Amino acid sequence: MKIGTDPGVNAEIRGETAPHESAREARAVPVALALLAICWILLWFWDTSASIVAIWYRSETFAHGFLIVPIVFYLVWYNRSHLGEVPIQPFLPGAALLALAGSGWLVAQLASVLGGAQFMMVAMIPLAILTMLGTRMVRALAFPLAFLFFAVPFGEFLLPTLMDWTADFAVAALRLSTIPVYREGRNFVIPSGSWSVVEACSGIRYLIASMVVGALYAYLTYRSLRYRLIFIAASIVVPLIANGLRAYMIVMIGHLSGNRLAVGVDHIIYGWVFFGVVMALLFWVGSFWREDIKPPAEAKKRTDHEWKPASTPQLVMAVLLVVVISSIWKPVLSAIDARNSSTSVRIPPVVPENGWVASEGTVARWKPDFSNPGAELAQTFTKNGEHVGLYIAFYRNQKQDGELVNSMNQLVRTTNKDWVMTASGSMESDVGRQRISIRTAEMRSAREQIVAADWYWVDGRITSSDYAAKAYLGLAKLSGHGDDSALIAVFTPKPESGESGNEVLGRFAADMGESIHRALAEADRQ
Questions:
Q1: Are strands 386-395 and 420-431 parallel, antiparallel or unpaired?
Q2: What's the rounded Cα separation, in Å, for the pair 443 and 468?
Q3: What is the distance between the alpha carbons of residues 499 and 495, in angstroms, rounded to a whole number?
Q4: I want to staple 253 with a disulfide (CB 3.0 to 4.6 A). Which of 7, 19, 222, 262 is the partner?
């Protein structure tokens, strides 16, 4: 038997490093630098990182976020043997995508879209890995990197839609059960009592939990992309249907028990138990097509000469690009914010025009549920026996929980103990000399019923779209005009007969729109 035929043994005898040992050492440096770059991004954008963790902590809907990063680390470890065979080669064009994500973070910050800023910051992590470790490594890490986006608290914008769907499903199911139902918006009455669909009934928690668990199950259980996509789609559709069934079953339990069951804490308990059963059934059905018990296809082993470590100049350039590109956006934002900073604001009274006169008193003891405006104005106007209330909430130097467009800012929140919204919609109306679509709503309290309409004013532009308002806000800040914005809400008693309140509000908006916007422009100049 010949001694020293093993190259690794010869290398050890000569005091040299074996080829695989050398390859591992060559990989260690770029991997370590990539991990440091990720830490740098998280620390440099600390405000955004901290906002994510803060939402995890205070919201039960997003408490799963604490598990996402450990799961990502587990998935990387789970694939460690395969990742050890993936070559590392910096991909410098990835820096352009990193710059695009950084500019997206800047735009989201300017427009006060916290969720957008959080998504863009998280997107910088896979793009930094792409730039430093290359396309093959990113492909190998595709699912763990995509799963990382579940760490971003998202989905609250779906609440109104999901609440409407839940109410639609429950009411339709009750009517199919021959139970008479009277519905007002998200509130409905049956012979045994009244029910209301609130945020907790929307199913957003079920949907997000199902998406997270379903995606992880699909990745670990299936190997074909088709089965993975089918199961992920099922994990989205099934909880939507299940939540409608849950709402219907809760109402039926309350109805059949004389409102002794499913009306207190057990309401929530029944809901989660039902959701757990539905998810268990989903996983059980999905297990019939599982592929994780099949032996994986043999991966092609790379020979020693195939390992081509990244050149030092390339690696240094990739590191510099990641650090520099990720670092420029916060100073740019600070410079824009410093230029846009201003003092407190006061809204001057709106001057009556076109036959309207200011009057004493109020139309109704109501104002929109908008948080922390910098200034408020409430006036009442009368014309030909018609009474219209005007409310303006003005925002300056906007920040989280003190911004115009926010998912929590609503004409009436479901937590409002005095008012409920019974209908909502929109109408085309002249606002001054401009014709736009404005939102409408009907609301009632124990003693009053009103019809309301509202729109936004942002840097002289008007819209009733949340998305357009955010875009206008970003453009205004980029232009150095500041972030002055306002909500304009007008309301009138709901007529008992004759023309609708919307027609009264439409005439008021056309007659008084320009005067309202002149008052806002004067406040903007302060």
A1: unpaired
A2: 26
A3: 7
A4: 262
Cα–Cα distance measured from residue 102 to residue 93, given in angstroms and rounded to the nearest whole number: 15
Of the candidates 211, 99, 91, the residue with the CA atom closest to the CA atom of residue 149: 211
Residue (of 369, 375, 360, 351) closest to 457 by Cα position: 375
Strand, helix or coil at 492?
strand
Query: Is 400 in the same domain as 473?
Result: yes
272 and 380 share one domain? no
Q: What is the dihedral of CA 327, 332, 333, 338, to 10 degrees?
A: 140
On whether both 464 and 354 belong to a single domain, the answer is: yes
Domain membership flag for residue 4: no
- Give the pLDDT score at 297: 47
Shared-domain flag, residues 201 and 249 = yes
**Reported pTM:** 0.79
Average pLDDT, the chain: 84
Please give, one letter per residue, the 3-state secondary structure of 111-123.
CCCHHHHHHHHHH
Host domain of residue 172: 157-289
Residue 2 domain-assigned (yes or no): no
Angstrom distance (rounded) from CA 109 to CA 111: 5
Cα-Cα end-to-end distance for the chain: 94
Question: How many structural domains comprise the chain?
Answer: 3
Burial (CB count <10 Å: 0-12, 13-18, 19+), residue 487: buried
What would the two tokens of residue 74 be?
Answer: 């587990």
Write out pLDDT tens, residues 217-270: 999 998 888 899 999 999 999 988 888 888 888 888 888 877 676 555 556 666
- Tell me whether residue 2 is exposed, middle or buried, using C-beta atoms within 10 angstroms of its C-beta: 0 to 12, 13 to 18, 19 or more: exposed
Is residue 300 in a domain? no
Do 239 and 384 have their domain in common?
no
In this structure, are 229 and 254 located in the same domain? Answer: yes
Q: How confident is the model at residue 294 (pLDDT cuts 50, 70, 90)?
A: low
Which residues have a Cβ under 8 Å from the Cβ of 14 and sit 6 or more positions away? none
Max CA-CA distance within the chain? 113
Task: Determine, yes or no, domain membership for 511.
Answer: yes
The predicted-structure confidence for 87-133, as pLDDT tens digits, reads as follows 888 999 999 999 999 999 999 998 888 889 999 999 999 999 999 99
